[in-house]
Design brief:
Layout (H helix, E strand, L loop, with lengths): L7 H4 L3 H11 L4 H17 L10 H6 L1
Helix pairs in contact: 2-3
């Protein structure tokens, strides 16, 4: 018998997709969207690919 339930994380959009959707909702320019998503990528990579929800104010200060 197959498990037909799918976890919430598989259905929810990825972080950068959520950021892009919010930026587009606010009608920001494409260059602003690109800059924000690049900074987010750098931030995530700086801390070893940890999700930003697991990071706090101290990590922002270190970055």
């Amino acid at each position: 018998m197959q498990n037909t339930s799918v976890s919430n994380s598989e259905n929810s959009p990825k972080l950068l997709d959520q950021v892009r959707a919010k930026i587009r909702l606010k009608h920001y320019s494409i260059r602003t969207e690109q800059a924000y998503t690049e900074w987010i990528k750098r931030y995530i990579l700086h801390f070893g690919k940890r999700h930003p929800r697991d990071l706090g104010a101290s990590e922002v200060g270190l970055f």
